[in-house]
Specification:
2 copies of one chain form a homodimer. With about 140 residues, the first copy, chain A, is of the alpha+beta class. Chain A has a single domain, classed as Orthogonal Bundle (Arc Repressor Mutant, subunit A). Chain A has a 3-stranded antiparallel sheet with strand order 1-3-2. Chain A has a 3-stranded mixed sheet with strand order 5-4-6, with no helix packed on it. In chain A, a hairpin with a 7-residue loop joins β2 and β3. In chain A, α1 crosses α2 and α3 packs across α4. At the A-B interface, β5 and β6 of A face β5 and β6 of B. Chain A binds a DNA duplex (30 and 30 nucleotides) through α2 and α4.
DNA sequence: AAATTATTTGCAACATTGTTGTATTTTTGT
DNA sequence: ACAAAAATACAACAATGTTGCAAATAATTT
């Protein structure tokens, strides 16, 4: 079942498959939303050291397994990349949504970021779009 | 000169005019870009306590003198609001730009955030758009 | 399958960032 | 100039993030 998918994902990205990595990947897979560092620490922290969580997230970021989502409250969230985004920029095509009610952060895969016209002289490299409001589940 | 403008701004927002607040406001006015907490601490920290900087920024935020800009590197930046945004949401109409070369963050007042279509069930409250790339000054 | 090598982990120690309470100082309004 | 209100510094603390290194675990070789 999921075990297999996890192992594959790790191997595909040239990462040793270890307990900590499997656990954290599992959290992402079963969550299907974004997780903050403290979320992860809370859910996996009893079994793994804080430092391991930091390092694991960093490695996942570098390998393009996850991407980071900036938020207004100074707490970065991380979410699984649907496709490989190890190049660095393959995830900036969808909008991120934070629910003010439940606090969940999700990637709106269907909603793509519209192009904008920058002032003369500016060149864009990456675009983030972050919407906050009330999500489907909380919007009874 | 600037002294006067600063005093006015503070008074208009029902804030006592004190050394710390004047200094921090001055930094914002002469910077004309966004500042991170550590920026401010570095530039005003010799004269003022760290806690004072925190509390001052918090008050400025509440009063709508400044607004915060989320960034990917987990370090919120603050920028002066052109108009009053004490209501909370009056600043989400422009795009923010971070230069990867010089590190500066600016508000692109002229560039407004395009409307997007959210999936059924979602309602938006606030929208942030964050572009990173190379700014005018660095794009020789 | 055992041994070697490479990688990951936990731990400790530390640095940075952010928060809270309180006494003192400064500002404001009268 | 005085009383009341507000802001500040200081100390103590909590939370978050970083680094080096020894021990443990995973991958590779024979």
């Amino acid at each position: 079942m999921m075990e297999k998918k996890i192992d594959e994902l790790l191997k595909k990205n040239h990462l040793s498959v270890t307990g900590g990595r499997k656990k954290i990947l599992e959290l992402f897979l079963q969550q299907e939303g974004a997780l903050s560092h403290s979320d992860i620490e809370r859910k996996a922290g009893e079994k793994f050291d804080r430092v391991t969580v930091y390092r694991t997230l960093q490695v996942f970021l570098e390998k393009g397994l996850i991407h980071s989502i900036p938020t207004s409250d100074n707490s970065i969230r991380y979410a699984l990349c649907k496709e490989d985004c190890s190049g660095g920029h393959h995830h900036d095509d969808h909008v991120h949504f934070i629910c003010n009610t439940c606090g969940n952060t999700v990637c709106l895969e269907g909603v793509s970021i519209p192009a904008i016209r920058l002032p003369r002289g500016y060149s864009a490299d990456q675009v983030e779009m972050l919407v906050s409001g009330v999500c489907k589940s909380c919007n009874i």
